[in-house]
Amino acid sequence: MPSAQYSDLKEASVYITGGGSGIGAAITEGFVAQGAKVAFIGRSDATAFANDLAEKYGNPPLFIQGDITDTGALKASMAQAKDAHGPITCLINNAANDERHRTQDVTEDFWDWMVQINLKAYFFACQTALPQMQAAGFGSIINFSSISYMMGNAGYPIYTACNSAINGMTRSLAREFGPDRIRVNALAPGWVLTQKQKDLWVTEEGLAAHVARQCLKETLEPEDIVGGCLFLASQSSKMMTGQALVIDGGVVTTG
Fold it and tell me: Transmembrane stretches, by residue range (predicted)?
């Protein structure tokens, strides 16, 4: 976990989508380690993970099992987080699905499902968090994107379309929410070697080719994303909004 401590994150009310596995689990642990009051939602049972964090840090996170593509369930889980921890002041839209697909194989149902999980849930989480952050007087929203659309990667066109849309939405919401002292930023990881990626997509040849494109010749682990997320959540970035922070070992360049 990152060594930096952010005093303003202690006792902060944080809500994370997909916080029980992969990058999301590392983020959940990162905020729990800061002393934040964390609630996270996930489809798979993460009770054991939450219990492990409670034992390790003495700061139990609230796990809510649910599907973010069910907007009603998403909103209900955020209300549950508010009841437990007070108004949400940090929202992290992390949950996503990069299932591979070819254009000619896409059905309307698959299109709708991909957009629901990779974009629609982000918007409605932001909408639901807004009045809570207005009540608190401030807030930070972090929308996870990916460098995949910047690279023009083939193999998952709906996913990359949603990644690009997340950046556009982030900029518009930053403008809309700014007068209420609510910041909205995007965070775009590179190829992070979660267990899912290792199980489904990583090959020795493919990984070597990707690392060759990085400036830094090391693979990315979920923990490498946590520091940037904590920074965007904290008051250390209090005048940063509408931006996209890339953590990819130096594959793409921005600016």
Answer: none
